[in-house]
Amino acid sequence: MSALFRFHGGIHPPEFKALSNGTPIATPPLPARFAVPLSQHLGNPAKACVALGERVLAGQRIGDADGRISAAVHAPTSGVVSAIGPHAVAHPSGLLQDCIVIDSDGLDNWCAPSPLPNWQDAGDDEIRTFLRDMGVVGQGGAVFPTSLKLGVNTLEQLIVNGAECEPFISCDDRLMRERAGEIVDGIRIAAQLMRPRTVLIGIEDNKPEAITAMRAACAGSGFEVVAIPTLYPSGGAKQLIRILTGKKVPHGVRATDMGVQCFNVGTLYSLKRAMMDGEPVISRILTLSGDLARPGNIEARIGTPFAHLLAWAGIQPDSEGVIMGGPMMGFDLPSLEAGVSKASNCLIAKSRALFPPRPPALPCIRCGECASVCPAELQPMDLYWFAKAKDLGRAQEADLFDCIECGACSYVCPSQLPLVDFYKFAKDEIWAAERDKKAADRARMRHDFRQLRLERDKAEKAQRLAARATPAPASSAAPDPDKAAAIRAAMARAAEKKAEDSHAPAKTPLSDDAKRAAIEAAMTRAAANKAARESAVSTAAAPGDEAKRAAIEAAMARAAARKAAQGAAAGAEAGATPVAMPASPSQPKPAIDDAKRAAIEAAMARAAARKAEQGVEVGAASAAMPSQAKPAIDDAKRAAIEAAMARAAAKKAERDAAQKGDN
Amino acid sequence: MSGFLTALAIMAALAILLGAILGFASVRFRVEADPLVDKIDAILPQTQCGQCSFPGCRPYAEAIAGGEADINQCPPGGEDGIRKLAELLGVDFKPFDEGAIEVKPKSVALIDETTCIGCTLCIQACPVDAIVGAAKQMHTIIASECTGCELCLPPCPVDCIQMVPVGTTVANWKWSYPVIPIKAVKA
């Protein structure tokens, strides 16, 4: 028996364990409906891998692990998946979270077990994947995926946590008394994987039966069962490591880095069930205590609604709410419709006798009592001041995140201050600020990259243009006189048409955009003319099939142009409509919005017109006979004209709207 | 007299020597960027929304550092942001101008994908490249990267983008500030 150490502080709250630890683990009847949360562990929620209405068997995987820090979830019984979506979960917020709801068929048929028989020879990765897919997570409270803890294989001490220090809870006690053999098998597996020099099993000395049972099961194995003095919170990982090994795990260092790893007895039990029996984690031992007719421990299937279990245990009519977890660290359940999760170790029905209302809080009198009981050796009164003043930076500097929220300070506070509530508040605020900061940093990075990309694209474009401009004079030193003439003629025609067709813009100078569009359209027409001429020359010798195909293509080009023209016309109409609606002169905002919308629609019309021109260019280039190409050009012209009209209408609408806005 | 001259000479020599060291240091250890701009930029929420009338957070940070802009022009940063800026710059807290801005809850944009015509205008407007899509293809928003700047709303020709407030989930839920009820006691 090695010498024991003492951690700082600690308290002796009344235990209330006798309420529930006297009867063997019972198995309540299965409910008709289960709600299995997809997030029962630290890290990413599992991804549902069953469909609505699918029949599932007990032990069948219904949610796959998502990413490294995650674990799978399994069907607790056979039945039909009746819902996948938000459902009440055991969380202090009362918010809904994704669950898979299974309607039991009452048969409780199991799927074939899939153990890992040759685990001794299996590689680390294989074991990790296996445990992740079996949904094995830490059952001590943090529900950290066990697969991630088994990777270390140079360990000095493996600590098995059977302390169970919190009042009321006796699930580990009953488990050790009744299933010590299986726990020890689990320890063997963990010890084989991690090769620790010593294995220490820490059990508080208020559980003599559990100590006896574990000692008997460990006989000859070399594992040492250590009875530790009852002192809350000796079941905290850092505190138990301190008691058994004397090592203090400093701030920011993991126990693994100091050659210690800690497992809860419940975790090792489920580890054994998964590895040797091929049974995924679909049940856990749960203490029902408090204001109940039949308190005790049960083996509860995951997903069983709390209301079902409490009704079975005979919840008293005078009970006032239910706590999940212990009275020190647990929280009030906002909804009893939530299902049992892998973290649910205890349900306590509150009564006025067991949980008298906390007297009203008084000002802190700076007695320092909290500091003397703090197991993390913090200064709770300082943390309280900082959190109360929302001075989060200084709270963090005072090692707020080393607080394990054990509640010892709140328990001893003579002023009845809800100290832990302040720490929880401060921690969440800091986490939220951290999240915001990360998001801001990412946004900054993305914005900077975008700026860089735009600059780069601009530079590349300029380079391309420069490259194209340099060789041009050499090849086309003498400009095509025909082409130039055609362009001039087309421009003149276009200008004429515009003057005729659009009465309103005749008085006002054409906008730059309209001018540019007209020039572009004329240029396209000229190019088409030229292409048609050229192709006429080249295909003059080959009539027949070629000509037919060209005719078809030209017809298609015409159709495309017409369609585009229609689109442009529709855009113009839509552009005119919002202005026709009376805009209230007292509200300048909608008028501006209208103007904006009109501008957008004008832009769309322009785009459509440009598209039509492009279509014509392509069509005309492939057209063989000039006579066929001509109507296509006419269509293009019409499209361009119509686009210009749409623009003009939009411009006018904009002006009108602006005037109204001014009024 | 000679003692006086010696002292003067020593002091002069020291002054020249130290001046040379300082001059060298100012050239050798020159700080290129203005560290104050970086510090201000770190406080700004990086929504890049332009509500401060500057084209992005960094230009606003530069304007603040240059004394051209007030510290109360960033609605997404909220009053908390103003407080942090005031602390950094050693000036008094200045609330938002009355009616100048409305502080909205954090939202992300959502594209109605049945209405989207694939015009890419919103993609060009997004300051953080949080919209994916291509011409004539449906666009969608990467919600985790969206800063809620609303810059994609005006360019949309079919008004298919709306802002959806980010609700509270189990992942971002926070314990609220503990409220201690106070009971009136008879004197």
TrEMBL record, chain A:
According to the UniProt record, what class of enzyme is this? translocase
Q: Compositionally biased, Low complexity: which spans?
A: 464-479
Q: What Gene Ontology molecular-function terms does this entry list? A: 4 iron, 4 sulfur cluster binding; electron transfer activity; metal ion binding
Report the protein name in the record. Answer: Ion-translocating oxidoreductase complex subunit C
Q: Which Gene3D superfamilies match?
A: 3.30.70.20, NADH-ubiquinone oxidoreductase 51kDa subunit
Q: Which GO terms describe its biological process?
A: electron transport chain
- State the similarity comment: Belongs to the 4Fe4S bacterial-type ferredoxin family. RnfC subfamily.
Membrane topology is: Peripheral membrane protein
| Gene Ontology CC entries for this record | plasma membrane
- Main localization (coarse): membrane
PANTHER family tied to this protein: ION-TRANSLOCATING OXIDOREDUCTASE COMPLEX SUBUNIT C
Q: Where is this region: Disordered?
A: 460-484
Protein residues bound to [4Fe-4S] cluster 1: C364, C367, C370, C413
Its gene?
rsxC
Per the UniProt record, the lineage of the source organism begins with: Bacteria, Pseudomonadati, Pseudomonadota, Betaproteobacteria, Neisseriales
The record's function comment reads:
Part of a membrane-bound complex that couples electron transfer with translocation of ions across the membrane.
UniProtKB/TrEMBL annotation, chain B:
What is the main EC category here?
translocase
GO-annotated molecular function: 4 iron, 4 sulfur cluster binding; electron transfer activity; metal ion binding
> Could you identify this protein by its name?
Ion-translocating oxidoreductase complex subunit B
Biological processes annotated in GO: electron transport chain
Oligomeric and partner information = The complex is composed of six subunits: RnfA, RnfB, RnfC, RnfD, RnfE and RnfG.
Biological source species: Craterilacuibacter sinensis
Name the residues that bind [4Fe-4S] cluster 2: C116, C119, C122, C156
The cofactor remark states: Binds 3 [4Fe-4S] clusters.
